[in-house]
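Practice problem: predict the structure.
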Amino acid sequence: MNSCVFIIFSFLLLLLVTATTSQLVAVGEVGDDRNMKKCLDNERLALLLFKAPLHDPNDTLSTWTADQHDCCNWSGITCSNQTGHVTGLDIHFYVLGGEISHSLVNLTYLSRLDLSGNSFHGTIPTVIGSLTELRYLDLSENSFYGTIPPEFGNLTNLQVLSLRYVGGCRVEKVEWLSHLSHLEVLHIDGISLAKQNHWVNVILSLPKLSILSLQGCELSQVMYPYSSFLNSSSSSIHTLYLGGNNLTSSMYSWFFPLTSNKLVELHLSSNMLDGIPKYLGNISSLEILKFAENSAVVKFPDFLNNLSGCTSLSLQYLIAPGSQFTGSLSDEIQKFSSLKCLFIAGSHLNGSISEKLWELPSLEILDVSYNNLTVPSTIHNSNLSYVNLFDMRSCKVGPHFPKWIETLKNLTSLDLANTGILDTTPPDFWAMWPSRLIYMNLSSNNISGMIPDLSSNFAKKSAIDLSSNTFHGPIPNVPSALLSLNLSRNKFSGGISFICQIVDGLLYFLDLSHNSLSGQLPDCLWHLKQLKVLNLGHNNLFGRLPPSIGSLIELEALYLYKNDLSGELPLSLKNCTSLISLNLGANKFSGNVPVWIGESLSKLYVVILRSNNFFGNIPLPLCQLANLQILDLSMNHLHGTIPSCLSNLTSMVQEGFSQDELYYTIGISENMDETETYVDHAMIEWQGDELEFFGSLRLLKSIDLSSNNLTGQIPYEITNLHDLIALNLSKNALFGEIPEKIGEMKKLLTLDLSRNNFSRRIPSSMSQMTLLNDLDVSFNSLSGRIPSSTQLQSFEASRYDGNAQLCGPPLTKKCPGDEESELLPIIGEIDELERWFYIGGGMGFATGFWIACGTLLLNRRGRRTFFHFFDSIKDWVYVKVVVFVSSLQKARQTYFVI
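Answer:
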């Protein structure tokens, strides 16, 4: 063979072998990758040991099982694609509890460990300090206690460390932090640094630290926050949280080194700062300043002046609600040309709002609500074209509707509640923001007129509050995607069929109470399955409740008080198992009180059926309502006896309350903090008057069964309701004795047993009812003496009238054995008088004895005269002494009775 051909053939063969070998190697590598375990056995075992002692009520770690070999697929686990090692354990807010296993020490490749938002307890394991690959560590919001391990100083790769609110944890020495040279984020809120001198030096030694949060760390108690020598390098911190430390202005001496032109966000809320240092006004990078809830008095114009350097050009968010500012919103505000948000609600400002405020070109959010500020009626040169949230609630805007409102073209939220407006709305007001508004509140003014069609004026998920005005006419069409509608306390008339147009199922608050609405409740309520509050009280609605009311499965408050509704309650209402407050009083409902109220509506804490036409017995299942605090069945036609099982109403037996009153904070928007509140309320007969209770129902524990046809005796078990404060059983046909142990109901403030047939005496135990401030037992058949106490004698005599055999104060009728005499001295004075009587008598006797005896011994004629005189007066003296002693004894007996 030719040598050239051989060489060529050999070369081609070599290329073929090489290519084949490469392909085989590649195939082998692919096969190895497919067969390689993603989770190493020792790390999988470490995770199982970590899980073993934990309490997992929601079974969030259900994928962590021994038969699931690849732990990289377990919930919350991240692994390296190259090595299979576990690199991330992230189980924040898994609702786990228990202690942390030391098995974590075997997860040596962990770079991220997030156990925040659980209920872990015990001490923080020191072994975490050996996980030197960690870059992210978050143990926040658990129940750890003890010392934060100084071994954390070994985590030199750590970039984020968050230990916020970890129960009773403390720092022994903060110096270990100085080893974390890569640390960028540090959150240790709620951990005391009160004994950590020179902590500022440690913080300044962290060259990359950009976010520092030390809220609630007791910084005001640190004796020496920094040493005389500080690192001269400027701070790298751009976000600093120092709220809730009771800091005074003395902190600004150590605060200065932490600030630089890198500082963007500063939180100083909930302290006692009486101002802002001028050097803060020279930070050219500061964009966000929070100064809320500071308890020291600050002059607001001075506050703005001290910020009016370079900061005035950079500041975008000034957030200081609830502070103790004085003075007005002055002209200095014009210097803050970059301001996007001015939020100073409830900050005690007074005086006028400067027109310069309207010249801020970038303002988007303006909230000066709950201040004593006066808004100019006319405003020139308004530049507020970017404002989307405008809140001046409880400021002085009226009496005229403000014309400058027309300049706010981009509004999405408007609040002018309680601003003294006495006017009609401008003709084009309602069409000014088509499909833009998500919140409008004009409540608590005196705005009048009719409202046009609103169906296209609001965005989706919007809220409207026009309550407490004088709007009249029919209720117009409203958007179909409303969240909340409050038109209460106006003069609206006509029907309420408009609610059938609210078809998107988002509405959860509807209040049309205190109007002149009429007609029937339409049978289209299945559209409102998210509704939580339905208040149609104080109107002229009539007819039966529609069956579709049972579709309101999320309903918590049904308030239909004082209408003309009639018929039996629909059985479908038992489907509303979320009901907490049921108020159907002052209507014409009839039939038996439904047993399903007690059987199906177990969450009820208010049941008011007063002033209707219910008849029959009080259903025993009502006793199953353990949360019940207000039961009012008065002014019906109920008969039979009072169930003894009322003593099972746990909330009225136990001290305190088991069910919070209905209180809503309604979030109006997903991206704004605008809210509306609803507090449950009820009409209650209290001490003879019908009163509307607001915001205190959870403190009121009351039973009113008055004005029915109930018979029988008061069950003695009812005296076990030790936390009851009002009991009204008046105007029935009850008889027998008042229970002897009624005095054990020591929290009763009002007790009305009048106009029944009670007999025998008033129990002496009632003298123990020291809190009683209203009592009526009139027009019964009670007899005997009214027990003596500070309270029972303080009521008017009329509260005991109509009991012919009753006697004693405060009645003028005396009890048998009482003497009609002037008020005698109290027992202490009687004892004193008696004591001096005997002393004086003894001294007089001794003196008289020797004078008389001496005379008689020496003078015979005198002896004869004396004994004659003695014979004539001895009977008179005897009678007087007997009467005097008898009077003393009677006085002592009378005192103990009184």
